[in-house]
Amino acid sequence: MKKLISACAVCAVAVGVVAAPNALGVKSTKQVATSATVSVTPTTATAGSTVKASGTVSSNSSCQKNRTVELAWVDSTNAETPAGTATTKGGSGKYDADVTAPATAGTYTLKATVTGPVTRKVGSKKKGQKTKKGRQFSCLASPPAISSPVTVTAVV
CB–CB of 110/146 below 8 Å? Predict the structure, then answer.
């Protein structure tokens, strides 16, 4: 019986030595993928007029808020013209922006790309401490999202 208790004590110490470094160790930064959607209303516009671009950034909730979305018009030759930026609202990941239609008549699509990477910290913040000591996330940039075609007509 004494040997059994001694063996259990040795095992407990061995498990404690293995588990303690993991419990105290620094947590690594988790890479979080991001994707986006974009739509334009109306789908027919006059050159130089204002249209509304809207969409959603999809990711885990800590990576959706306050993300910058870069918007660019893409013509039939795949040439890009910057159209502005939008910022997601709150934690929903939704965004919208008024953008100016291209000055030249033609068929265009609007490309939306979420910028990144952005580092976010989540977890407990104890009273008196200035920084959060919880888990860190690296919110990555998204691949481009493309809207349905928008027809731009000449100014009459």
Answer: yes
For the stretch 88-134, pLDDT in tens is: 988 889 999 999 999 999 999 999 999 989 988 877 666 666 665 67
Q: What is the CATH code of the structural domain delimited by 35-122+135-156?
A: 2.60.40.10
Q: Return d(Cα 57, Cα 34) in angstroms, integer.
A: 7
Total residues belonging to the chain: 156
Question: What is the gyration radius of the CA atoms in the chain, in angstroms?
Answer: 25
Cβ atoms of residues 93 and 54 within 8 Å: no
Q: Which two tokens stand for residue 139?
A: 């919110």
Long-range contacts (CB closer than 8 Å, 24 or more residues apart) made by 12-18? none
